[in-house]
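I am writing to request your help with a piece of structural work I have in hand. A protein sequence and the structure tokens that stand for its backbone fold form the material at issue. Please examine both parts with care and let me know of anything in them that strikes you as inconsistent. The record follows directly beneath this note.
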Amino acid sequence: MNTVLSGEISSVGEFLAHALEMEVESAERYRELADAMQVHNNPQVAALFRTLAAEGHVHAQQVMQHAAGEDLPDIAPWAFKWTSPDGPESAPLDEVHYLMSRRQALQLALHNESRGHAFYLQVAEGSANAEVRQLAAEMAAEEGAHVQMLRQWLAQEGDSEPVTQDDLDPPCQPG
């Protein structure tokens, strides 16, 4: 399993603050990617990213419901306990290209959801707090369902890699 947790999460408030940040950030990143794909006339991938953003928004709402009445700590962006600068479910921007195919977008989403699943599993296995372990295990199960859904979508896409499109309007490079 890919290590995505960089320290123990010991309280419910701290866990929910991490979960909320991860889910909100993921939904925002997918919305940004959808907008970029739309601008670059890649409507199929834009639509997929909008679907993923909507799923992320629903998951963030579920975390907010869990957090109702909890005192969530303010955590500085650099103090979150994950191993990457962004949350585990945020798409790395260097893996995105405006000519990407739907299959490539699904592979990226599968990578993100797998990291989110790993994060929740690692919290569930590593926290000393029983309530944190229980909540994290529930969220890991949800993320596991997302991983399975994306694997099914990928299987429906077929096994072949798409033909790489030539960039008919490449960015200007200084000569």
